[in-house]
Every structure is written in C-alpha cells, then in structure tokens.
Specification:
Shape: globular
Distance between the termini: 87 Å
Number of strands: 21
Strand content: 25-35%
Number of helices: 12
Radius of gyration: 27 Å
Amino acid sequence: MAKLKVRYICQACGSVSGRWQGQCADCAEWNTLVQEAAEVSSIFAAKHHLRGGGRTIALVGLDCEIALPKRFATGIAEFDRAIGGGIVPGSAMLVGGDPGIGKSTLLLQVGARLAERGQGVVYVSGEESAEQIRLRAVRLGLGKAPVQLAAATSVRDILTTVEADPPALLVIDSIQTMHSDLIEGAPGTVSQVRASAQELVRFAKEQGTAVVLVGHVTKDGSIAGPRVLEHMVDTVLSFEGERSHQYRILRAMKNRFGGTDEIGVFAMEEAGLSQVPDPSALFLTQRTEPVSGTSVFPALEGTRPVLVEIQALTVRLASGATPRRAAVGWDSGRLAMILAVLEARCGLSFATAEVYLNVAGGYKLSDPAADLAVAAALISSLAERPVPSECVVLGEIALSGEVRAVAHAPLRLKESAKLGFETAWVPRGVKGGDGIALAEFGNLRELVDQILGR
C-alpha cells in the first residue's frame, strides 16, 4: 500500500518543497508555503515502465484537411476582435485584471448579449450573491436578459447543475473561490485552483460549452495561482487600465484559436462598458493652437493604429540642485537613453533641468518607434518651440543618433492621414505616405535643426 508523505506547495508560484521554510526558494515570496499530503507510489510502480498495457491511439497526418473552428459572435465587436472573431464552442478562457477594473461587468454584458440572441448562458459567482448580480444587471440596463444566475463555490454542485442542459457559455467568477471536494485545502490554494480549473476545462471539452474563468491578479499584475492554470486554458485575456482613467483595454496574452496582436478598447461609463471604435479620440488633446513640449505618435496595437499624445516638460534649476527624471506611461530607462543621445550627439544640455514625460490619457507605450516622438517633445519643451499640430512623429533612435526605420509605417501613416494629419516626420526611406507629406530624417541632429529652425 502506498504511504503518504508531506509536501509544501508555494501558493504564489506552485513550486514544491520537501520541508517548510519561511521564504520560497523559487519566487522569494515569504510565508507562502502550505502543507499538503501527497501520495507516493511504491518502489515497484516507480520503476515500472510505460511501454505497454495501454491502448493504441489514432495518428492524424499534418497534411489532412480540417475544418476551422466555428465561432459565435457575442454582439460586442471590441470583445470579438480581441479573442479573434468570436467565442469558440468548447473553449476555455481565463480573464484577469485588477480589482474593480470591470471584469464582471464586461462578462455580464457579454452573457446578456448572447442570451438575448437565444444562447444559453449561466453566470456563477463565488464572490457575490445572485441579488447583487441582478442589481448590477439592472443598473446596466440588462435586467430582462435571460441569463441564469447562481451563487456557488462547489465545482461538483456547479457541474451537476449544468450537466443536464449544458449552456453555450458558462462564466465562473472567480476561479480562486471554487472548491473541489476531491482535494484537501481551502479555496484559492494552488491545488484547489488547479483541480477546479481542470474539472471545468474537461467539462468544456466534453460538452462543447465555452467556459470563461475570472482570475484574480497579484500585486505585480500577473494572474494569481499556479502558472499551469494559463497552460490549461485556450485563451488568456488581460483587462487593463487605470481606475482613475475612463478607458479599458482587453488584450489577448494567449490564444490557441487566433492571434494575440489585437485589442478591444472600452470606456467605463455610468451604464457600464461602452465600445470605443476610434481609440485615438481618447488620447488626443483637442486644442486650437500648438503648445510646446507635445508631439503625436501613431502607436500600433495589433492591426489597429492608435494616435497618442506625448507630453514633455523641462524645468531649469539653480546650479547645484539635483534634477529629477520622471516618466509616466514610458520606460524611464529609455528616457534616460534618449536624453543621453541628445546631449552627446546633438549638443543639447539637460544636466541642469528637471525632465517630466507623460503619455496622455494614461496610455502605456513600449514601442521603440516612439523614440523620435519623445525626442521631439523634449526638444520642443527645452527650446519652447512647438511641433506643428498637424504633424505626427515616428522613428527609432540608435545610440549613434541615427533614426532607424519602424515596423508597419504605411499602416500608421494611413491612419494618421485619415484623422486629418497633414505631415509626418519619419525615418529616411519610409514608403507609403499617400495623403500625407513626409519629412525624412537620417539622424537626430536633423530633427533638432528642424524644430529650432536652423
């Protein structure tokens, strides 16, 4: 008979240790090891090979023709765009995001749209009662949608309830509150999260029900629980945004049925989340005359260009004072690099000036194509000479001061022209500027001369 031994599992990263210790050796988190009992196989079973005794599985050639997975649209275009065109029956999705960002609101709206189209939808919450969900639905104007609600935490009870009549969509809010009676431990532990998710994913594959799991996130923004949870599901969605800002972005981090280069943009309003078909309107400031220290950059989210405004402010200090460098929505290390290139290659001095950089609207940029727009805003602020308001700026800056080409420049320029911009400051050799005049720059010194009028 197999004997039991004790093991300790980290609740932050899922690593296993043979003894308890205050700090996890893998993720360095404190007081996260929890004791669990594990069954150890006998010596004979451990040495027994697996080369016989099983059943023969059917092999399929790579060249065989297979049908594309069928999808059903939710009626919310931004949600469908992010997941690749619609929900695939039998798929498992994991949606993560900060508390209060709008995950439950978004999924309730998606479920209501599907239910109104005749699809069966079951919404199970382990954090709220059915009355609380109903109150939110009434506030969102969805009180008459035929969505079935339940407040439960037992996976066995949930699967027993929906097994008789499997719905098209099953929403579990959240997976950290679910409990499986096959595993010892409190809800939210690594073993409980893994076991509960495994049973729900198996139900999705066997019954053809699309299952959506809501996941909590840790303080660094990653989904709480074991990393294996993200491997078990088909799609991982991240719902991003600042609670102090209006906009929200739904981004696919993993998608087995589509790409991960598309986003859905929403705006939080009194009646819930509304779609934003033109995201550039959220991040561009409408003004009648140009202001120094600003530039417009055509960012690219998947195949969708989004024009954002970059704002810079330089403040001269008295000699001897230590200047500050602060960046919001942009990498502070890359800001320091651009300042160094401006000083070393262009002769501009920022040593006695505080530098503040901000991406308007709370947008976060990581695209190196924004280097030239950041440099233009910094030069404009230092010289107090505004960049033309009808101009967009894009290009990557090398340490040598060279302005390098960027990806998908024609697509960025096409969207800029569509929104009324007349001029684009771009790297040398860029093609595809139909409808917009191009000013090409080979190095950063040429940009300085352009802004300073030299």
